[in-house]
């Protein structure tokens, strides 16, 4: 996933574009660049590496001046991270500059045709081919003027030849008064200002300038000027658009007093759970209520199977959702890696519903799974954090997390919000079936107590940091759990892997004895999730197998459990709660542990190597 931004107005474009790129850098940070129109020509500056190490230094030496500009921060797909592969890219004439988020699948054939027509290329990217294609059409429209803006016509003609996905911003030296944006499959938003307008991949880049935005739809092409904008749909005049208000402010997209966004977002989790619960807990009827499922009670009762499709951390949440919905609603649930669901011909009954889980709402694999379910005539719901994202818009109904922007590449508060909402959904579906009011109330009250309990666990941040320093030199970790906390073991391993680059494996504690226990040795610590739940005795038996082989043990246990101390090297306690709510509480220590391990090892916590916040390619 890449980040793009555009500005047209009366202010200097460079600082606005650069600040916007910094707010989008979590989307990809292999390289960054910008282009500004200065009345006589295009000024382009681009450099590989993170903004502060590359582009920002370049601009100190060679600033650019002008009031119309575009910028890009890259997560490399076609072409390795390199100065020449950084965006913006220019057309053959050097008049047109574009930035692009997406993948052009037919770029090779187009490149061959353009090369035969005399075009020369400086990069190995698909984006440069699109720039040249727009330039070729622009030349044709300039040579044979017709009604309509030649740049807009050229962009539309070029996009009709594209197979693949795009979110683009385009400027041209002949047309300093306009900025063009277009999208298909990659998000693009218009920001509406006073005497200025913006384009951006997501709202984080706009929120310090405006709260009024337009979420563009696939095939939309927008023409922005200082004083207004028009939206067409690939040549069908005046496509409809809706002005929306952003539900968060610029402080939400700032780090504040925290050293990293990830730590800030870990500490925002009590509020994230409160936001997920707000207006959805109906204790009077011992159930939960949702405004956006767009399904009647009869339709919800008729559901006979739920397929939960997701990727990464969201897939771990899906595994918890399976336990929750099967236990609370007695509904069969199947969890699918989104990318697998799309390509295997899973048999689906008429009343099978697909539930997509996604923080960003832009994960290409998950979006593809949702589209596949809809193509086969099934209702597709979604739990999403980013308002107006592709998955949110293409689902038949769903639930917003309201967790606020999640900037850290490692997902934390969105995961906890998803678990909260899956618990509420389990209660909601269960109370339409055979879930008793007492059991439902027990879970609802446990959820309502969770924010304060998370706060209590966060108070152990210093202790967990000491633990991280103690184990920071380990090269291999196991994370083990059973039942509801088995998926949390997987999540703890992923958190550690993706930000500290330590090899870590999550397993069912029971599965260890079937082979992986061969890897246990004094140099390999194991984080054991051992709440005092129904699996406690069996989990303790699994723990003793590890201990017998001298594997160091860090236990995450329930407050008051003294027995665990006898069999563990270190213990992190969490408050007692209802069994289905332990996944929420047990995750917090693992997030903090991974965070402090990464800091201790000098890793870039918010922008881990090779990663991006959302993977918008399949
Ligand atoms: C989790 O920390 C990772 N950033 C990654 O696994 C992420 O959860 C996955 O790419 C899915 O993203 P989504 O929730 O935005 O769809």
How would you sum up this structure, described in words?
The structure is a single chain. By secondary structure, the chain is of the alpha/beta class. Helices cover 36% and strands 21% of the residues. The chain contains 19 helices and 26 strands. The strands form 5 sheets. It has an 8-stranded antiparallel beta sheet, with helices on one face. A 6-stranded antiparallel beta sheet has the order 5-6-7-8-12-13, covered by helices on one side. A 5-stranded parallel beta sheet has the order 18-17-19-20-21, sandwiched between helices. Strand 7 and strand 8 (179-184) form a beta hairpin. Helix 4 packs across helix 5. The protein is globular, with a radius of gyration of 26 Å. The model has no long low-confidence stretch (mean pLDDT 94). The chain binds 2-deoxy-2-amino glucitol-6-phosphate. 2-deoxy-2-amino glucitol-6-phosphate binds next to helix 9.
